[in-house]
Automatic annotation (TrEMBL):
Keywords: Membrane, Transmembrane, Transmembrane helix. It holds the Pfam family CD225. The chain crosses the membrane at residues 69-92, 112-136. This is Uncharacterized protein. It comes from Dreissena polymorpha (Zebra mussel). It comes from the Eukaryota.
Length: 140
């Protein structure tokens, strides 16, 4: 209605292509150039190579599994420490399966300590019993 009376409207309609930053003919400010390398040629196609992200994949080794050695130390050596070693070896394997490699490594090292201690005590017991048995049956 305002146009019909000859009064100009309070706003002007401007097509979006004529506004800065709209449309296809965009020039980049040298201070705000797009990231990456811009390849321009005489063709109307503009190719922008975006910078890529470098991904680093850290692969951790599984800690050693001492379950078989723990069973051996339980059956053939000092069984109380061997039993503890079996329980710790199973826990270390479980942690390793869930991806907690640091905790599994610590438990695996503790398991190895119990296995070695069980074997040493078992050998010492065998030696002591052998000395006592042979000493008791000596004929003078």
């Amino acid at each position: 209605m305002a146009e019909a009376k000859g009064v100009s409207p309070a706003y002007e309609t401007v097509p979006p292509q004529s506004l800065e930053g709209y449309g296809y003919d965009q020039g980049y400010n040298p201070n705000c150039a797009p990231a990456g390398r811009v390849n321009q040629s005489s063709s109307p196609v503009l190719v922008i190579n975006q910078p890529t992200q470098n991904m680093v994949c850290v692969v951790q080794e599984r800690p050693p599994d001492y379950t078989c050695l723990a069973i051996f130390s339980c059956l053939c050596c000092f069984w109380p420490l061997g039993l503890v070693a079996i329980i710790l070896a199973i826990q270390a394997t479980s942690l390793s399966d869930t991806g907690h490699y640091d905790a599994a490594k610590r438990l695996s090292n503790t398991t190895l300590g119990f296995i070695i201690t069980s074997i040493i005590i078992g050998i010492a017991c065998i030696v002591v019993f052998a000395v006592i048995y042979t000493g008791a049956h000596r004929s003078y």
